[in-house]
Design goal:
The protein is of the alpha/beta class. Helix content is about 30%, strand content about 20%. The strands form 9 sheets. Strands 14-13-26-25-24-15-16 form a 7-stranded mixed beta sheet. A 6-stranded mixed beta barrel has the order 30-34-31-33-32-35. Helix 7 crosses helix 25 and helix 8 packs across helix 26. The N and C termini lie far apart (about 70 Å). Bound molecules: iron/sulfur cluster (SF4). The site of iron/sulfur cluster has 14 residues, from helix 6 and helix 12.
């Protein structure tokens, strides 16, 4: 990119061509006052405060945010004339502003207040005219005080450009201009709170703060969001050991200050009254509070008793997609060394058992090597089987940035008409028939091959078996594929053409693919597609790269698997059945594994408990009663074991069945690391002391371990991560201290060690959809993510419950008409297993003969309905 040389306030500066003066100044530590310019938003030029003196061919005055840098330009930021002008602008603004700083939550971090002080302004020359507009409080978490608004337009741009919602805009004209919703209807948006974050005054406010402190009273601790796997940095604002609000920082983390409703407002669970603050032991049938010594002693004794009577393999362990890497590492180490069992697992692996191996293979084969941040640099975005708006909202914002900045093409393939608002010029939606994803991916591949949309010679030279792969698709008919998928041939072709274009292509593979019965075939097909279109194989330095990103449900669904909390792998995806791997781990941990510990079995840990093969279950940081796909089986499994230990922050439905409950801390009270869906490891920072007697998971495991005679103890997560680095090949090179400054991306680190490897195509006949039918249960149950909720934490966050108190059953308009169901009617969804009653939401989003229910409203137990991926149900209107 061409660079421009200029001078601002006597400082020589080099800036990329096209940069405006304001940005060039910020990038070089020079302050120019301004209230409407924001680096992540498009230019608006509304506040008129950033006037500077510019000398190009001649000297004049320009608005810094709206004027591009030019070669040889000289800029003066604070000449007497400029300051006089700025003061006049401020006098106008303040003539309308209520000057209610003592009662405004923004005081202390208000742009208007700062500039007033900087310019040393006194009461102005203009007659004060106040607006006296009523406060708008039409929703539980955001409020708009139009009296304080300076019409900078930042909130409008954020809502439209970053969130893709456009819920607010300028209304009226001239002196009557205000910010508001269309026809002054109540705010109906995603409640990301981006408006409060960018508002330079106190016009938009976070109602959840509730006057709980002034900005200068808060300590601000950046850490990682505990909800989805994007891994946004949140800034916890604390006062007297309590988290009062969450803000964001545009310059810290991968999210540029963007957050979704859960990240920004879903923090109240940290201090929820339902938190468990002491250990519990079941006595005479009821759980009663106990001391830590009693609980640890009791648990260790019961484990030892079971080991001596039935062997360690009679114990099972379930790790956590929400706990830190260090917690999970110690958990699997404790199970494998102290309990002498390899019957361990986590919900992500249970739901998608093939995924771990496929992700690792994708990394090594060079088709999953980029971090999530690369979404912003993409030239083509392909979301398949993922509802990015609901599942990973900030990843959606990153994608919108790519569309805005790079003109990225967008392709969304989904069974449902998922919503993703974007300004993409090329925006293709492939709404494929239920279960036909593999056929669709092969149709894309076949078109690219048959129309030679990529350089096939290049593909041949960068892979091992291209000719064989190509000829394996000779019989495949794209016309037939179009019929099976229900997507027109023209649309599939258009998508194939976009995918084959050179440049960076990010393919995000979602839960619908990962958790489908044919997950392995579908993911292998995506890997093939990615290898076929990957321009990086051309050998040109700037050719771009096509890469897969795998959607993971929770903040550390990736990390729990990286740590080896799964029966087939040690930390770093080393196969437990490989003797060399086993010996390496034995050496590192100073143990000798019993011979029968690593027996291969097709039963997961819940199956083992359900089939009476386990005597004890140790569950850390999960509520499988709500999260395990088969609700009936998990309930029975938990009841069948003699000894159930649950370590969690809340008395979940699973904890209520336990003999011992161990209280653990939340993300705000601990240190450690999470690994996001882009395989980037980020560091957590402790913001407050543990609530009650709760302890970090690694400490609890440490106490249990010592009680059971293990000699190794750990003083901190840092020490644990150092051990992980030595044991896990994928975390080699990680450094706890360095993580404070820079995150660690293990996929690129592993790939760089295997860079010369050629891709090997998976060859197989594309499988067609198999959707069971039953005339008594004519609907297919689909489940998925929710923007507003995610498990136990959101359930205990009052603001999220206020925004989204209900879980709806989403029914297709035609089906609703046939069943005479209207919006909000209570409907009974019944499967052969069970039934639930929910309110109906009628739309065209889900296909006919399907019903969609969020699986993240923890209190709904949609898993009670399920038996397989395509659970069949019937729907009827509830009769009173
Ligand atoms: Fe948290 Fe995910 Fe929302 Fe980011 S997108 S704030 S990680 S829930």
């Amino acid at each position: 990119m061409k660079t421009i040389h200029l001078v601002i306030d006597d400082k020589p500066i080099v800036a990329p061509e096209g940069t405006n003066i304001f940005q060039a100044a910020i990038d070089n530590g020079i302050y120019i006052p301004g209230l409407c310019y924001h680096p992540k938003l498009s230019q608006f030029g509304g506040c008129r405060l950033c006037m500077v003196e510019v000398t190009e061919r001649r000297t004049g005055h320009r608005f810094a945010c709206a004027h591009p840098v030019s070669e040889g330009m000289t800029v003066k930021v604070n000449t007497p004339k400029v300051i006089r002008y700025r003061k006049a602008v401020m006098e106008y603004l303040l003539a309308h502003h209520p000057l209610d700083c003592p009662t405004c939550d923004k005081a202390g971090e208000c742009g208007l207040q700062d500039i007033t002080h900087d310019l040393n302004l006194f009461p102005g020359r203009f007659k004060t005219v106040r607006m006296h507009a009523p406060m708008i409080r039409d929703n539980p978490i955001l409020e708009l005080n139009r009296n304080r608004c300076i019409l900078c337009g930042r909130c409008v741009s954020t809502c439209k450009e970053i969130e893709g919602v456009g819920a607010i805009d300028f209304q009226n004209r001239g002196i009557k201009t205000v910010i508001g919703t269309a026809f002054d209807r109540p705010l109906n948006c995603s409640f990301c709170g981006g408006c409060t974050a960018v508002c330079p005054t106190g016009a938009w406010q976070d109602r959840t703060l509730g006057f709980a402190g002034r900005s200068w009273e808060f300590s601000k601790v950046p850490t990682i969001c505990p909800y989805c796997s994007v891994g946004c940095t949140v800034v916890l604002n604390t006062k007297t050991e309590s988290v009062r609000r969450v803000t964001s920082d545009d310059y810290t983390g991968i999210n540029e200050g963007n957050l979704c409703v859960k990240g920004r407002f879903g923090h109240e669970f940290i201090h929820a009254p339902e938190r468990i603050k002491t250990p519990f032991i079941r006595r005479n049938g009821a759980l009663s509070p106990a001391s830590w010594d009693e609980a640890i002693e009791h648990t260790a004794k019961r484990f030892q008793q079971i080991i001596s009577e039935s062997g360690g393999t009679a114990i099972g362990g379930i790790g956590s997609e929400k706990c830190a890497n260090e917690d999970n590492y110690l958990f699997q180490k404790f199970c494998r060394t102290a309990l002498k069992t390899n019957n361990i697992d986590n919900m992500a692996n249970i739901k998608s058992p093939a995924l771990n191996g496929l992700i690792y293979e994708s990394v090594v084969q060079g088709v999953a090597t980029v971090s999530l941040k690369e979404l912003e640099r993409a030239n083509t975005l392909f979301f398949i089987g993922v509802d990015i708006t609901e599942a990973h909202p900030v990843a959606g914002s990153m994608a919108r940035k790519a569309i805005r900045m790079n003109n990225a093409h967008l392709i969304i393939a989904n069974e449902r008409a998922v919503q993703f608002n974007s300004p993409a010029k090329n925006d293709i939606r492939l709404r494929y028939a239920l279960g036909s994803q593999i056929v669709l991916i092969h149709a894309l591949i076949k078109i690219i091959l048959s129309e030679k949309l990529v350089d096939l010679k290049r593909v041949e030279s960068s892979s091992n078996n291209f000719s064989k792969f190509r000829s394996s698709l000779d019989e495949f008919s794209v016309e037939e594929a179009s019929k099976i998928t229900g997507v027109s041939l023209k649309t599939i072709r258009n998508a194939a053409v976009l995918l084959a274009k050179p440049g960076n292509c990010c393919i995000v593979c979602g839960k619908d693919i990962e958790e489908s019965p044919l997950a392995e075939d579908a993911i292998r097909a995506l890997m093939n597609l990615c290898a076929l279109i990957n321009p990086a194989y051309s050998g040109e330095a700037d050719a771009g790269r096509a890469s897969l990103l795998f959607s993971r449900a929770h903040n550390n669904s990736q990390g729990v698997n990286d740590m080896g909390v799964a029966p087939g792998i040690f930390p770093g995806y080393a196969d437990v059945h490989d003797t060399a791997n086993r010996e390496k781990i034995e050496g590192a941990w100073g143990v000798k594994f019993p011979d029968d510990m690593f027996r291969k079995t097709t039963e997961n840990v819940i199956d083992l408990a359900f089939n009476n093969k386990l005597k004890a279950l140790y569950i850390m940081g999960d509520n499988p009663i709500a999260t395990y796909p088969n609700g009936r089986k998990i309930r029975e499994a938990c009841k069948k074991v003699d000894f159930l230990v649950v370590q969690d922050t809340f008395m979940t439905e699973t904890a209520q069945l336990a003999e011992v409950v161990l209280p653990s801390v939340t993300f705000a009270e601990k240190e450690g690391t999470f690994t996001n869906m882009g395989m980037t490891v980020q560091r957590l920072n402790r913001a407050i002391k543990p609530v009650g007697e709760a302890k970090p998971d690694w400490q609890i495991i440490g106490s249990l371990s010592q009680k059971m005679g293990q000699s190794r103890s750990y003083a901190s997560p840092k020490e644990i991560l150092t051990e992980i680095e030595g044991v896990s090949p994928v975390y080699a090179g990680i450094n706890y201290e360095r993580l404070r400054r820079k995150e660690f991306h293990w996929a690129s680190s592993v790939y760089n060690k295997n860079k010369t490897a050629k891709y090997t195509f998976t060859i197989g006949k594309p499988k067609s959809p198999v959707v069971r039918k039953n005339k008594d249960y004519p609907f297919v149950l689909l489940t998925g993510a929710s923007l507003n909720h995610q498990g136990t934490f959101s359930r205990h966050s009052k603001s999220l419950m206020a925004v989204a108190p209900e879980c709806f059953a989403e029914i297709n308009t035609k089906d609703a008409q046939a069943l005479q169901i209207n919006n909000n009617d209570p409907v009974v969804i019944e499967s052969p297993q069970n039934k639930v009653t929910l309110k109906a939401k009628v739309s065209g989003k889900s296909p006919e003969k399907t019903v969609f229910i969020s699986e993240e409203h923890e209190w709904v137990f949609s898993n009670l309905l399920r038996d397989a991926e395509h659970t069949l149900v019937k729907i009827c209107k509830e009769t009173v």
